[in-house]
């Protein structure tokens, strides 16, 4: 089920433009139905107004004192994600198992098209959902994983990793790294090509994908052929690599949309002390951890010999600055990089599969990158 015309998908494929960077060219995807600079995509804007993320609150209505995190956490987790649609046109098989190699019980879902079940050399994607390391769900990204499986004729694994603060760093990283290693070590049993395994994720999941790629390079295994980084957080709190700078002036904001953007949507990724960053402080407890490359991949001593990358940002996502900076870092280190910017979109737009054409287009981009392996 789609809530947009197929024409919007065609526009996203054919009406792109190029934005030159230092080491890369950023492919800018259009905002169907909105040509004016500084405006949120019309479909995205309508969804934001219906969803909690688009709500702006009067500061006078805010509580004088924030409730304890134990009280806030269930509500924060409940608010994450967006109900989306199944766009599959073929039968997708789904299987489930549990892994324990990381010391935690980790659910591993896998999706693949029934028609290709006899193909023993399919590519694979191991996907890590977003949710700020403290929330999110494999169920939010299930339709996304299923669609990519169909479009790429691939096996897509969806990892139900441990969440902070109950299981802070490095639990989630270890869970995800172990899941990729498990998939690689059992490639033949899964009917996949061990030379064509990709890792990917959105937001915090993108952080995990980048960190897993770094760790796999450092340890020499498992072999990863592609990293798909969807509006990833690649630097934590106020840590920064040389040359990196976040400033609001990097965003073109229309007066009509100023309140909703400055009121919260662009705050994500804005540097702040660890103690002032609620989500980051729940994931890492030691301030020195924010400079660990497996927490802040931007700070790795070297980005050489990492797998090729598809790096995706949204125009009105506060994480866009670090997303595109990381793409530049990878390219400067000799990594093959394709960098996309979705004009008019905000953070977590991929969750809106079936509601926003950009989410479906991104699934197509990911599938094409996997097929090119």
Automatic annotation (TrEMBL):
PROSITE patterns listed in its UniProt record: LIPASE_GDXG_HIS
InterPro entries tied to this protein: AB_hydrolase_3, AB_hydrolase_fold, GDXG_lipolytic_enzyme, Lipase_GDXG_HIS_AS
Signal peptide: none
Record keyword Transcription present: no
Domain Alpha/beta hydrolase fold-3 residues, every copy: 125-350
Keywords per UniProt: Hydrolase
SUPFAM superfamilies named in the record: alpha/beta-Hydrolases
PANTHER family: AB HYDROLASE SUPERFAMILY PROTEIN C4A8.06C (PTHR48081), ALPHA_BETA HYDROLASE FOLD-3 DOMAIN-CONTAINING PROTEIN-RELATED (PTHR48081:SF8)
Assigned protein family: Belongs to the 'GDXG' lipolytic enzyme family.
Name used for this protein in its record: Alpha/beta hydrolase fold-3 domain-containing protein
Taxon lineage: Bacteria, Bacillati, Bacillota, Bacilli, Bacillales
